[in-house]
Each structure stands twice: as structure tokens, then as C-alpha cells.
């Protein structure tokens, strides 16, 4: 997957819009409380739903890893240390 300049510009616009929205809608909970509440919602799901694997080949994880590799800052970080 090749990321284009247009992809980056679109993503930056989405971040800009989210940041604008977040300024007008501050979080109601601390990050720790939010994670806890997500866990509570997850526990409310029936066990058979929690056990279901919608991505047995882990394609979503593979895609995320391939994108994260593009964001690696190894050569940048080495220059700054």
C-alpha cells in the first residue's frame, strides 16, 4: 500500500476537524476511566460473541503493522540522540 500526498492531506484534514470538535467537546472521563468503561461494555457481551473471531487471518493487524512500518522514526531518532 503506497501512501500518497493526497492521503496525507486528507488525514491531516480529518485530524484538524477532530481537534476542532474535541476543543468544543472535552472528554468527560479520564483515559483510565474510559478504558475501564470500555472493558465493562465488553463484559456485557455474551461469551459466544466475545469468542468469535471475525478476522482469523489477522488481516487488520497485518495492515496496521505495514502502515506503522512507514511511520518508523529509527533514522530520525538516531540523529536526535
Task: Explain this structure.
The protein is mostly helical. The chain has one domain. Helix content is 72%, strand content 0%. It contains five helices and no strands. The protein has helices at 5-24, 31-44, 47-51, 59-70, 74-80. The protein is flat, with a radius of gyration of 18 Å.
Indicate the low-confidence ranges by residue numbers. Answer: none
- The proportion of residues forming helix, as a percent range, comes to over 70%
Rg, Å, rounded = 18 Å
Structural class per helix/strand content?
mainly alpha
Number of continuous helical runs: 5
Distance between the termini: 31 Å
* Beta-strand segment tally: 0
Q: SSE order, as H and E?
A: HHHHH
Strand content: under 5%
Shape: flat
Number of domains: 1
Amino acid at each position: 500500500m503506497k501512501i500518497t500526498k493526497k492521503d496525507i492531506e486528507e488525514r491531516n484534514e480529518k485530524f484538524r476537524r477532530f481537534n476542532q470538535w474535541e476543543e468544543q467537546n472535552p472528554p468527560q472521563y479520564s483515559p483510565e476511566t474510559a478504558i475501564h468503561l470500555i472493558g465493562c461494555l465488553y463484559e456485557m457481551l455474551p461469551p459466544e460473541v466475545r469468542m468469535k473471531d471475525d478476522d482469523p487471518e489477522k488481516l487488520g493487524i497485518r495492515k496496521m503493522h505495514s502502515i506503522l512500518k512507514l511511520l518508523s522514526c529509527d533514522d530520525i531518532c538516531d540523529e536526535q540522540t
